[in-house]
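pasting for ref
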Amino acid sequence: MITQYAALTCLLCLIGQGKLPAESIRVLVEGNARVQAEMPEGMAVSLSYVGSVTVELDQDVRFFRGLELTVTAPQAYLDYYGSLAVVWYADLAAVPGPGAADIEARQIGFELLPNKIQSVYQIPIKTAQGIRASPYIGVPTEIIPPESFPILFRIMPIVKGLTEEIESLVFQIHIKPLMSGEGAVKIIPRYPEQLPGKPFVALIDDVVLENINEEQILREGSHHLVILSEDYRNENRRFLVERGKILHITVELQDPTPLIFFEAPENTQIFMDNEPLIPSGKGHPVDPGRHEVKFQMSDYAILRILTVQKGKRYRVALTIDIGITESE
């Protein structure tokens, strides 16, 4: 047994120095797992004591920092501690299908299966992602970049003469993504027909977006969007980014020409700067500045001065009221 442990130690040192080349191995593939942001709960497969599972990454890994693999051993395994190891391989020359397969791959991790029912491993796929080994979590490999996937996880015996009991054991493997706590937002501008293609500036959390057409990666939580323009109405809104999701925000860019909506009793004549007009539900466009509004009912007229600002809407209403007072 001492010789076996010395060999394992030497092997682990070679792995740590990155000296292990690709090798030809024969494996029994008993499952395939695809790690996806749409399935944060992950998926499970069952392996025998000589079984393996291939692990693929979704095409979009922007919100991944790694993956987590949990091995749940049956209670009977504790009587056979030291007889099984877990091994990781990357850079598979080909993705094997179910069943026995001969493959070319590079070994990236190797250790004894711990003497406990449940073992948790985390594999980083990016730098600076806060994945570290602890008494409860193992980190069996260095950073494995997405281009090295799919990887293969394998259980294998390291001693001979195992009993029929261990050959019948079933190990549960659960694989899920480790999310980065980020999401994305995509700004979709819609221009008014009468004023298409004019420039505007978009800011998120007071930071100017360099390219409005690109998705913006943001931390999950509440954020603030501001649209500034000389040609459109300014916009100001808050939005919520969810972990691992892309939020599409449609911005209806508005013509900043001021609009005045008139309301008056039937048969009332309305004049704007001494020009008669007919009120409509769409509003009356005017230039910013000082304007004169007059309501004319028979011989009775009311005149008001209105100062209009760019990008504003105004409601000008003529109301007729009846005042009733009571005295003794």
